Amino acid sequence: MIYVPIPIDRIEFGKPLPVNVWDPKGNLLLRKGQSIRSEQHREALQAHQACATETDYKAWQRSYDRLVYTLLRDGASVAQIAEVSMPDAIADADYAASHDIHGDWLDVQEVLGVMLSQGAAATHPLERIDAVARRAMQLLDADTDDSLFTLFQALNEVSLGYCATHGLLSAVLCELTARRLQVPDFVRPVLFLSALTMNIGMAREQDKLARQSAPPSTAQRQVIRDHAQAGAVMLRDFGVANEDWLDLVGMHHEYAETLGLPRNLECRRILRAADGFVAKIAARATRLGLSALGAAKAVLVSATGLEARVGSALATAVSFYPPGTYVALANGEMAVSAQRGAAANTPIVVSAMHADGMPLGHYVLRDTSQSEFAIRSPVSPQRIRLKISAQQVRKALGKPSPNVLTPAG
Which of 384, 205, 210 is nearest to 284 (CA)? Predict the structure, then answer.
């Protein structure tokens, strides 16, 4: 058993403890439900190095974090938050988030895809969503360009499960856009979770629609209309207590600013922009996807005011030619964008094909800020007959392959 020291100074006298308290050797000091009676009692517990089990402590800390989040959203000051005591109750959901994912983006995508497709029947859903969000953020922070490359490439592989890829890519775009717009640190994780789960109310249908050649049936159109609220209800049934998460999922297609929680309007704009951007890029059996440049133009042309500000931030954050998308160069080569450049229209790319579609002998790094390798136009993935090797792209960039990270803790 692993024992973790508890923040004894942040526990109020007389309030029942939500966990058993132990010393580091596993001797019980206080039972769950008992309380610290006085300053002398507190000092005695400190002298015995009061601890909780690792599982209990993590759940207790999540309960505290949720309390702090609520206070921050309500406008509490740093001084007020510093005075907050540890809560005397722990929600069942706080014990759920203890699963870890140690793999790469495709491992994360698989976990999310299975959970989303199970819908209301999912087992330990909050545990799995938490694990997906934590690992996704680790991968994104470790190498943003490689993350974008993998996810934009995965968007073309419908067999992987479109709904999960859409959710992951939308979450990444939300995070990068929110950072550029200086959305507070404590708000962004909820936006990320909302993007991952916004389509849980229609996950199976979304995967099916990505593959079918016929227009949506009447029943499918009804699922599409209802999915946002259905998803919010499903998440609440899972035990989600964060009203901002539920509001963002339930209202992510709503433009009316009189609906939903007013404090979430900016996050809702970001989520709606990312959702629409990914949907425009993704190909369907019935149509080709737009290029990222075309999707950015579509977002910006129809947007005004704050919507335009969000669209501009999104386009700048990922560039007009995001890693993982394809371009034709001035010298006739076909290339895959591999790394965002100094400007939105000058990424670092890796050439893989001649103009006639024949593969190059080996992948070649090109800097599109140089006139001879300037981008002539975006290229649809359906025109690329060569299977692009992510390993060879990373090799051309001088990166290790695969992306190696310390396992999630």
Answer: 210
286-336 pLDDT tens trace: 677 788 888 877 776 666 788 889 999 999 999 999 999 999 999 999 999
Locus of tokens 């998460």: 245
pLDDT band at 41 (very low <50, low <70, confident <90, very high): very high
**In one letter, which amino acid is 373?**
F
Under a CB-based contact definition with an 8 Å cutoff, are residues 136 and 168 in contact?
Answer: yes
